[in-house]
Amino acid sequence: MSDSVMLTMDQLRVGLYIYLDMKWFDQPFAFGDFRIKSEEQIRVIRSLGLPRIRYNPELSNAVPGPALGLQDKPATPAPAPEIAAALEAKNAMIKRIGRQRAATARVTEAFVQTAKSIHAIDQNLFARPEESVRQANVLVGQIASSILSEAELAIHVMGETGSEEMYFHSLNVTILSMMMARDLKLPPPIVIALGMGALFHDVGKRNIPDRLQREMEAFTPAERTLFELHTVYGQDIAKRLQLSLPVQAILLEHHEHVDGSGFPAKLKGDAIGLLSRIVAIANTYDELCNPVNIADALTPHEALAHMFAKLRAKFDARILQIFIRSLGVYPPGSIVELSNGVLGMVTTVNTSNPMKPMLMIYDGNVPKEEAILVDMEHESDVSIVKAVRPAQVAPDVYRYLNPRKRVSYYFDPGAPQKPR
Predict the structure, then answer these.
(1) Could you tell me if 255 and 276 are in contact, meaning their C-beta atoms sit under 8 angstroms apart?
(2) Out of 12, 225, 229, 369, which residue is the most buried by the measure of CB atoms under 10 Å away?
(3) Distance CA 134, CA 122 (A)
(4) Each residue of 218-233: b (16+ CB within 10 Å) or e?
């Protein structure tokens, strides 16, 4: 690296940001580059057999010591207990990474199958309405049962998973709405109605010209009026499908805002149903992250910040607070910088401890397909210090972390149960 300087081992000091130029599996530390925090770490580093080591002056909060010629001497072996402790922590981390990779594969498969199910439901909605509604009820019931029964709900950001993208918005809104319902402790039958309303919330757009749905510029007044009618059309379709009254209300009200600025009826406050207020938050968040014009997309972190800072008056304050608390300040898909200077992307957030998410770490010495996964719940030495815009990271880091242009979420339907 152009910003790194070579040091001899005797120059190591606490506070230097160093790079271990060796394979990740051959060294006992969680990261391949980090800021030294203790004399014990220095002794372990000196035992690795490297005659010299690179450090980054800009990321360091100390200066190297004088060169005393230790590079010509054999490496100083670290005390056995310190090496053993470091290796034990590394081995435990490797096992966690293995479990996380298995969970990711399981979640991806479940996500793809769910998206395909939604596709089939949508395709047959009018040709076989009774069967389609039955299938939707079964699907929503399965999702609700899994989400409500988990002691800890893990929400994953999904990668590129196939050709069902047009159904990801409905799925995102459904998952995020149920996540809020879980924290609101709504009873299962109500959660089922919420899930059905979230799943079908945009069904009225079937009666809106495709051109308006792909519109990237401002609507004319007439176009705006027509577009807003998709909520009324949605309620009409829900009646024809004999969906329940709470579901019909969601389809009609999911664009209403508590300050009266929404549509179609400009309802205020509690005049908007609770379930509609939940879906309104999930829908707005996903539209900010996944707009029609992807160039306008906000990062998940920016979307939450924008909703809180600029749009707060439009939403139920208590539900918005629960939503932000559940996804965390750094929701899945966010690029973050750690206190040791390392960059990573949030891949999974545990809604019971959202400030300690799972990260995929950038390390140029580790192949992307074997990327280090760090569970911040197990890391006491480092913390997340800030979110980073994708445009602010180097191209090679961006390609490695691959933050999603379109963000989709799913939960872990097969996570091991923990006692409450």
Answers:
(1) no
(2) 12
(3) 12
(4) eeeeebeeebebbbbb
The CA distances from residue 98 to 82, 104, 335, 370, in Å, are: 25, 10, 22, 10
pLDDT digits (tens, 9 = 90+) for 183-215: 999 999 999 999 999 999 999 999 998 888 776
Distance CA 207, CA 226 (A): 10
In tens, the pLDDT along 271-303 reads 999 999 999 999 999 999 999 888 888 999 999
Show Cβ contacts of residue 413 under 8 Å, excluding neighbours closer than 6 positions. 106, 107, 110, 143, 146
Q: Summarize the confidence of residues 362-387 as an average pLDDT.
A: 89
SS3 366: coil
Per-residue model confidence (pLDDT) at position 418: 45
126, amino acid identity = F
Considering only CA atoms, which of 336, 401, 333 is closest in space to residue 366?
A: 401
CB 408 within 8 A of CB 115: no
Distances, alpha carbon 402 to alpha carbons 71, 157, 188, 411, in Å: 39, 12, 37, 20
Task: Examine residue 81 and say whether the peptide bond preceding it is cis (omega within 30 degrees of 0).
Answer: no
pTM tops 0.70: yes
> Given this model, what pLDDT does residue 198 score?
98
Give me 110's structure tokens: 């479940």
